[in-house]
Design goal:
The chain is an alpha+beta fold. The chain has helices spanning 18-30, 48-62, 79-87; strands at 2-12, 34-37, 42-47, 67-75.
C-alpha cells in the first residue's frame, strides 16, 4: 500500500544540524523513495513496507554517529490514494 510519511529529525549535541538530516534523507533516497526535504520536516512517499524498513535502517545508521530525536507520522490517505478512493466512491 502506498503511504506518505512526515519525518522530522532533530540533531542533538552537535554543531551541524544539516549533516545528520542530509545523511538520513540520502539513505531514504537510495531506497528509491520520493523524498521532499522541507524547512522542518521531510515528506516521504512510497510503499509502506519500504518506508518502514528504510526509516528503521536510516535511523539505526544515523544514531551510530549522532544523537537525534525523530518524529514520524504515517498516513495511508496520500493525495494519490485519496483521489483514487474518491473516484471509486469510497469517500
Amino acid at each position: 500500500m502506498k503511504v506518505q510519511a512526515l519525518i522530522s529529525i532533530y540533531p542533538l549535541k552537535t554543531y551541524s544540524l544539516s549533516e545528520p538530516i542530509d545523511e538520513f534523507c540520502k539513505i531514504l533516497k537510495d531506497k528509491d523513495l520520493k523524498v521532499q526535504t522541507r524547512t522542518m520536516d521531510s515528506l516521504v512517499i512510497g510503499e509502506s513496507g519500504v518506508i518502514f524498513k528504510s526509516v528503521q535502517e536510516a535511523f539505526e545508521q544515523i544514531v551510530e554517529k549522532y544523537d537525534i530525536a525523530m518524529d514520524l507520522k504515517i498516513s495511508n490517505a496520500c493525495p494519490e490514494e485519496a483521489k483514487k478512493k474518491q473516484m471509486k466512491g469510497q469517500i
